[in-house]
């Protein structure tokens, strides 16, 4: 695997971990309570990383 491919794979894994962490934090804080800031953050994450939207 070339260096750019390795970096791209690392970036993909890092984004997935970040997304999972953010979603976990939001879930822990009960997103269902209607907090606008939390819902906006969740929407931003799902928009930024669409590969995690349906699976999360």
Distance between the termini: 29 Å
SSE run? HH
Average pLDDT score: 74
Helix content range = 55-70%
The parts where pLDDT drops under 50 for at least 5 residues are none
Shape: elongated
What fraction of the residues are assigned to beta strands by DSSP?
Answer: under 5%
Can you walk me through this structure?
The chain has 56 residues and is mainly alpha-helical. The protein has a domain at 17-47. Helix content is 70%, strand content 0%. The protein has two helices and no strands. It has helices at residues 3-28, 36-48. Helix 1 runs antiparallel to helix 2. The radius of gyration is 14 Å and the shape is elongated. The mean pLDDT is 74.
């Amino acid at each position: 695997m070339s260096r750019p491919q390795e970096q791209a794979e690392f970036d993909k894994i890092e984004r997935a971990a970040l997304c999972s962490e953010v979603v976990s934090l939001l879930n822990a804080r009960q997103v269902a309570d209607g907090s606008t800031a939390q819902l906006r953050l969740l929407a931003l994450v799902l928009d930024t990383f669409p590969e995690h939207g349906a699976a999360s």
